[in-house]
Amino acid sequence: MSAEQAEKWTILKLLEWTTEYFGKSGSDSPRLDAELLLAEARGCQRIELYTAFNEEPDEAVRTAFRELVRRRGEGTPVSQLLGRKEFYSLSFRVSEDTLIPRPETEHLVIEALDEFKRLGQTNDKLQIADIGTGSGIIAICLAKNLPNAHVSAIDISPAALRIAELNAADHKVQDRIDFIESDLLAKLPATQPLDMICSNPPYVSEAEYAELDKSVRDFEPRQALVGGPDGTETIVRLIDEALPRLKPGGRLIFELSPMIADSVTEHLAHVDAAEDVRVIKDLSGHKRIISVARGK
Ligand SMILES: C[S@@+](CC[C@H](N)C(=O)[O-])C[C@H]1O[C@@H](n2cnc3c(N)ncnc32)[C@H](O)[C@@H]1O
User: Fold this and answer.
1) With a 6 A CB cut-off, is 138 part of the ligand 1 pocket?
2) Is 88 left (phi over 0), alpha (psi -120 to 50) or beta?
3) What number does the ligand 1 atom closest to the CA of 160 have?
């Protein structure tokens, strides 16, 4: 290779250098991160980088990329740098005010949709609530997949609700979702009983939070993660508030940490209104979702 070629910061060279740098700074997916950020700086799809390996990006692209690489090197999650995250095959806006959607939460959406399939087609309007909606992923996926559903999307964070509203508009379901700022169900109007309540509540204990990776602790809202001293407090409150708001036979479906799944199941055994508790495992075989019916 000539000295002139060695000097050239082609796309391939930028990717190789950045991959090595991210690898050393602790990223789990250094090459993917490098490609996503370079595509963002270049304003193209990731796949388009592959046909442009020998191209030298102009100074504006290199400057934008350098800034993204610097922030990623400091630990900022790629999704926050891109302002977007894929969930259930849809693209959602995220910000520092929202949890970054996790793949495990897709199990919750699947379980909720399966439950309606088991109940059979109905033309009746379905009333659903999503408690702790964050970026709105659960509410929006349910509204998109259930055309006769109306969803109340609740969060205690007004900043998260603003992102959820933008996401609902992006996915054209804003007419069937109400956004409500509330501590759990406190401000949800008690007009009619609900068919289903879904929630991915905060469920990390104080001790676990202290041990979380810096990339989570420093960049995602504490309020979205910590569910009280032992992680179960918000869930216990959710169970108390949610079951009475359901139609008889209606279901509360929520995500939780496998670490507290047994204690929450044990708690449910003593809740009079709770019936037919189902525990759903994630792809790693961990207890991840609980579905519980309101007794008839
Ligand atoms: C684990 S995040 C889930 C966000 C989103 N549903 C998801 O699955 O990506 C929990 C959400 O609950 C909200 N939250 C925390 N405590 C709450 C409370 N007491 N009442 C309502 N929302 C709450 C947080 O602001 C956060 O958006």
Assistant:
1) yes
2) left
3) 27
pLDDT tens figures, 155-189: 999 999 999 999 999 999 999 999 999 999 999 99
Q: What pLDDT band is residue 274 in, cutting at 50, 70 and 90? A: very high
Q: How far is the CA of 287 from the centre of ligand 1 (A)?
A: 20
CATH of domain 3-74: 1.10.8
216 CB within 6 A, ligand 1: no
Label residue 215 by pLDDT band (50, 70, 90). Answer: confident
* Ligand 1 within 6 A of CB of 289: no
pLDDT of residue 3: 57
Domain boundaries, the chain: 3-74, 85-294
* CATH architecture for the domain at 85-294: 3-Layer(aba) Sandwich (3.40)
> Which candidate, 166, 116, 174, 175, places its Cα nearest to that of 145?
116
CB of 95 closer than 6 angstroms to any ligand 1 atom: no
Q: What is the ipTM of this complex?
A: 0.99
Q: What is the pLDDT of residue 224?
A: 97
Do the beta carbons of residue 151 and residue 177 sit within 8 Å? Answer: yes
Q: Using CA atoms, how far apart are residues 76 and 145, in angstroms rounded to an integer?
A: 32
Nearest CA to ligand 1 atom 4: 134
Query: For the chain, first and last CA: distance in Å?
Result: 77
203 is in an annotated binding site: yes
Identical fold for domains 3-74 and 85-294, yes or no, is no
pLDDT of residue 120: 86
For residue 84, what are the β-bridge partners?
93
Residue of the nearest CA to atom 11 in ligand 1? Answer: 132
Report whether residue 202 contacts ligand 1, using a CB cutoff of 6 Å: yes
Output the six-digit token pair for 238.
């959710």
